[in-house]
Design goal:
CATH architecture of one domain: 3-Layer(aba) Sandwich
CATH class of one domain: Alpha Beta
Keywords: Membrane, Transmembrane, Transmembrane helix
Largest sheet: 6 strands, mixed
Radius of gyration: 58 Å
CATH topology of one domain: Rossmann fold
Shape: rod-shaped
Distance between the termini: 7 Å
Strand order of the largest sheet: 7-6-2-12-13-16
CATH superfamily of one domain: von Willebrand factor, type A domain
Number of strands: 28
Helix content: 25-40%
């Protein structure tokens, strides 16, 4: 009674306008007759109409699914083609640039020797008035050496960058993108940037400062920069006479107490042992290797340059001596007793030593300088040691270079000092400086050899000659000025481009496996348990019973089994496929039941009191649910009468008329379409 409103709509079979609404049946209300069209209801139960409806719906859905499937297949084909082309391109680039025409990634390590310097300042009493000038000169000297080391690092890095650029062009070609400069900004000169492949290893400058007169002390330990040690040196520090031997011992103590080892291995860009390299060309490519005696060996360790600089005047002696230790001291007792103004006091002699100097005493200072040097070439067993043993041997010794910067008041006093043969031999043995007479009774130093000895009357001349010390810091400091052309392995990463295709293929296999698994699971569920499935028999949608196959359902309809009153039957809607259900929770009847579910079994009872017999069209019946309660339908909905209500109950709301489509015979069979009309509505 609530199938819908269809007044004035065309017929579903021939497209012609349907007839006027039928007159209300006996027992029905006039309001419902206008909301329902008999022709449309008959069409829903017509087998031909349902066949055409199902067929057209099937065709439309098939076309839709084919269109969607065609787009999906085309998108996957395009994606697969793109991934194949991408993989081929990546593999081609990787093979071409890695094996056929390899690119080279050039790098260079420039090893610089570190420099440690100890500046010993002469603080004899007679230099006190010139204390400020002397300290400013020492500070300027320290800043000059520090700046010289920074300039050396800058120049070597700049030279290495220019050399590496030309080497990169030579190996990779002018037009290759690998030949382009990899710039690193140069703050000093932006027009000449550094190359990122150049690395400077070493070139560290540290400085210490000390004072010496009769005794020596260190006021500033080895550190970067000169420090502010001048503030701690007051006028009280200037006293007595000066002795070089104490200054030399103070230098050696500073270097022995350094927290860093003197020698180290040069920086290694790679980890290939030198002895595994077989050819001279390959040996040159490793900055830490060199070809020696038909094999590739690791280079000699890089050692710090160590300098001990004496900054004073020519009045200093080699060492301090007490009068009591001298055999000739007794011969001076009478003189000093009679002429006290000619001799210092006993306390002064004990503190500062005797001011008389003998030539033989220079041998003690010369031996002190010699003990500070270590030449591994003079050690016959050094070369036969292993690399690590050689390094340990080098770190066990100091190799201190002695530099003397002396001032003299006059040229005559300079010559007076140089006239001493012991002094000249000491200077030659300690600094390597050579002297020769000029024919006028004067001794002249060899300027080309005297880089570590400076004695001048003019401070400007001393500053000019101090530039030689900068050359000592540079000489032999640059190592391994050879580029390292390694194959650019970064192109091998292009092989990873194939992973996109591999991932796509694996994903396709996974999707196919998942779809197959779902289909298999659905098939197993159909075979092993009750399920709801929609089939088409003679182009009609029916619902199979639990455990029955489609062929069995078709055979069931062909058997034309008549429906008996009193039997438990299920009533299913033709279009939605759901069953009439007794909703116990709400106490109503609805169309949301599933086949064979609880509450979907109904018993048809004839109203005329006839016994069990065939159910026929036009017969009036009552419907009892699974609890035996009568179904009642009226304008406000549905409900159930008590189970105690008998078959003789006279209620139009609980009486229904069985109707079958026109053309069918009067008896109702299983799987036949029919309509139940309530007399109340």
């Amino acid at each position: 009674s609530k199938l819908g409103h269809a007044a004035g709509q065309p017929s579903a079979r021939d497209g012609r306008p349907g007839p006027a609404p039928a007159a209300p049946r006996k027992g029905s209300r006039a309001s419902t007759s206008s909301s329902f069209q008999e022709e449309y209801a008959d069409a829903l139960l017509d087998a031909g109409y349902m066949e055409a409806l199902v067929k057209s719906t099937f065709v439309l859905s098939t076309r839709k699914s084919h269109a969607a499937g065609s787009g999906y297949v085309a998108a996957n084909k395009f994606l697969l083609l793109a991934l194949v082309l991408w993989s081929v391109a990546c593999c081609s680039i990787a093979v071409y640039k890695t094996f056929l025409v390899p690119s080279f990634s050039l790098s260079m390590a420039i090893a610089l020797e570190d420099v440690d310097m100890v500046l010993m300042l002469d603080t004899a009493r007679h230099l006190g008035p010139w204390r400020d000038v002397q300290q400013r000169a020492a500070e300027q000297f320290a800043q000059t050496m520090d700046g010289a080391m920074a300039d050396l690092r800058y120049e070597r890095r700049l030279e290495g960058s220019d050399f590496l650029r030309s080497s990169r062009l030579e190996h990779n070609g002018r037009w290759a993108w690998e030949a382009r400069d990899v710039h690193v900004r140069n703050e000093r000169d932006p027009e000449r940037p550094f190359d990122s492949g150049v690395r400077v290893d070493g070139g560290e400058f540290r400085m210490a400062a000390g004072l010496f007169n009769a005794d020596a002390e260190v006021v500033h330990n080895l550190a970067h920069g000169a420090g502010n040690w001048q503030a701690t040196v007051g006028e009280e520090k200037y006293d007595g006479i000066s002795a070089w031997q104490g200054a030399l011992q103070a230098c050696q103590n500073v270097f022995n107490g350094s927290d860093k080892e003197r020698c180290r291995q040069p920086f290694k860009f790679g980890s290939t042992p030198c002895r595994d390299v077989r050819t001279p060309d390959d040996c040159k490519r490793h900055d830490y290797c060199e070809w020696q005696e038909e094999r590739c060996e690791e280079r000699t360790p890089i050692c710090r340059k160590q300098f001990c600089i004496i900054l004073g005047d020519s009045d200093a002696m080699c060492k301090k001596r007490k009068v009591d230790n001298l055999a000739w001291g007794s011969s001076t007792q009478t003189v000093c007793t009679d002429h006290k103004d000619l001799c210092p006091s006993k306390d002064q002699m004990d503190t500062y030593g005797n001011t008389v100097e003998w030539s033989a005493e220079y041998e003690d200072c010369q031996a002190e300088v010699k003990s500070m040097r270590y030449d591994p070439r003079a050690d016959a067993m050094f070369k036969g040691k292993e690399q690590n043993d050689q390094l340990s041997e080098l770190n066990a010794h100091t190799d201190i270079q002695f530099i003397m910067v002396l001032t003299v008041p006059t040229e005559a006093q300079k010559q007076l000092r140089l006239q001493s043969e012991g002094f000249r031999e000491f200077v030659s043995a300690s600094t390597g400086c050579k002297f020769s007479p000029d024919g006028n009774g004067k001794w002249v130093p060899d300027e080309t050899a005297c880089t570590k000895f400076i004695m001048e009357t003019d401070s400007d001349a001393i500053a000019l000659k101090s530039e030689r010390i900068k050359d000592l810091m540079k000489s032999g400091s640059s190592r391994n000025f050879v580029p390292n052309p390694d194959r650019d392995v970064r192109y091998a990463f292009f092989f990873l481009g194939v992973l996109n295709l591999v991932f796509y293929l694996l994903w396709v296999r996974f999707v196919r496996w998942y779809a197959w698994s779902r289909a298999k699971a659905r098939l197993a569920a159909k075979e092993n348990g009750p399920t709801q499935k929609m089939i088409r028999i003679t182009k009609e949608v029916v619902e199979t019973a639990a455990g029955a196959s489609e062929i069995e359902m078709a055979d069931l309809r062909k058997l034309r089994i008549p429906v008996e009153t009193g039997a438990a039957l299920g009533v299913r809607a033709c279009l939605r496929g759901q069953c009439l259900r007794a909703n116990d929770a709400e106490g109503v009847a609805d169309g949301r039941g599933e086949p064979n579910a609880h509450g979907t079994a109904w018993h048809f009872e004839p109203v005329d009191g006839a016994g069990i017999g065939p159910l026929t069209s036009g017969q009036r019946v009552r419907l009892r649910n699974h609890e035996g309660r009568l179904l009642r339908v009226w304008e406000h909905g549905s409900a159930f009468l008590p189970a105690s209500a008998g078959s003789d109950t006279d209620c139009a709301a609980s009486t229904f008329v069985v109707e079958v489509p026109a053309g069918d015979e009067g008896q109702v069979h299983l799987e036949d379409p029919m309509r139940l009309r309530c007399l109340e509505t």
